[in-house]
Amino acid sequence: MEPALLAMQDIEVAFSVGKKDYPALQGISFEVREKEVLGIVGESGCGKSLTSLSVMGLLPGAAKISKGKIVLGDSDVTNLTAEAWCKIRGKQISMIFQDPMTALNPLVPIGRQIEETVLIHSAISKKEAKQRALEMMTKVGLSRVEQLYHEYPHQLSGGMRQRVMIAMALICEPQLLIADEPTTALDVTIQAQILDLLRQMNQETGTAIIFISHDLGVIREVCDRVIVMYAGYIVEDAPVAELLEAPKHPYTLGLLQSIPDIEKRGQPLYTISGRVPAITERSTGCPFVGRCSSASPTCERSVPDLAPVSDTHRVRCHLYSEVGEVI
Ligand SMILES: Nc1ncnc2c1ncn2[C@@H]1O[C@H](COP(=O)(O)OP(=O)(O)OP(=O)(O)O)[C@@H](O)[C@H]1O
Ligand SMILES: [Mg+2]
């Protein structure tokens, strides 16, 4: 097995609202190994972005890591200073966001924005940095790069802007790339091209990827392993094939049934009734209890552990006893 690049160890993130602290992430434990593509899936508000922001040292001011440890390579990065983070971000680990328009500077030509990352992290001349930027732009499938180098973000299409973001994120050859819903704002054809590009980059350079999406259909196209999140918890974690063939958690089953299927054309799409509870509404029981058709009184009382059902598969559900059998 490849060594772990990132280890999240029992992470809890809480928001201060008024005088109270509300946990938004709880018991988040997982590892990302070299070259791996790990998917994180869950509905809006489940904590996918907070998980990635805590890995990047970019949590919003009102949020804090109240428990646990984040280990990147050999270093504990849980309480790093802003200055120390600047040395890591871009070089060891980088991120692409859902909406490139808010992540790109509208006033700076895109070529300059791409080469800036290299100039910060390596001692090379401006001329060499420009060369690297142009090469990277070509690599991510942009054409007429010499001209594009001088253009501004608003002159590009959504798909081209996302390619620019990928070039910026990968130019320093980070070991780990976090892609937070990178294709949600794009139409399906462009979405497929961007997914192919990320997969290709992963295979060529060995960059590990955390790929975040609310769409299990997209996750199954690109990921090796999947983490399913619900209301701030990891509820299931398995290799993608295992999760699709033998899903355990009732929430995962619901997500799988919600994937549009050409064979069911004309039938109404399955939806999981109810919604993700807000961080102020979370109770002491299983986070999914309010929406689960298999819930029992035990589920109201306590949060299940994230327990192994095989060497590679974990699930947080009272339906599965310690021996991994359905009760
Ligand atoms: N600045 C904030 N203040 C208070 N609560 C917040 C803040 N940011 C996020 N939250 C809460 O934390 C929870 C997790 O949010 P997060 O953005 O990680 O969800 P997500 O899974 O990325 O959702 P989406 O799919 O919509 O991007 C949500 O319940 C959200 O309301
Ligand atoms: Mg998000």
Strands, count: 12
Helix content: 25-40%
SSE string, helices as H and strands as E? EEEHEEHEHHHHHEHEHEEHHHEE
State the end-to-end CA separation: 33 Å
In the CATH hierarchy, the architecture is 3-Layer(aba) Sandwich
- Average pLDDT rating: 90
* Rg value: 21 Å
- Structural class of the secondary structure composition? alpha/beta
Total tally of structural domains: 1
Shape: globular
User: And the CATH topology?
Assistant: Rossmann fold
The oligomerization state is: single chain
Structure summarized in a few sentences:
It is a peripheral membrane protein. The protein is of the alpha/beta class.
Supply the key terms.
binds magnesium ion, 12 strands, single chain, Rossmann fold, alpha/beta, four-stranded antiparallel β-sheet, cell inner membrane, binds adenosine-5'-triphosphate, ABC_transporter-like_ATP-bd
How does this structure look, described?
This protein has helices at 48-56, 82-88, 100-103, 110-121, 126-139, 145-148, 158-170, 188-205, 216-222, 240-245, 250-257, 297-301, and strands at residues 4-17, 20-33, 37-41, 63-72, 75-76, 93-96, 176-180, 208-213, 225-230, 233-239, 307-310, 313-315. It is of the alpha/beta class and 327 residues long. The protein has a single domain (4-92, 174-315), classed as P-loop containing nucleotide triphosphate hydrolases (Rossmann fold, 3-Layer(aba) Sandwich), CATH 3.40.50. The strands form 2 sheets. It has an 8-stranded mixed beta sheet with strand order 6-7-8-3-9-10-12-11, with helices on both faces. A 4-stranded antiparallel beta sheet has the order 2-1-4-5, covered by helices on one side. The longest helix has 18 residues, at 188-205. The site of magnesium ion has 3 residues, from helix 1. It is found in: Cell membrane.
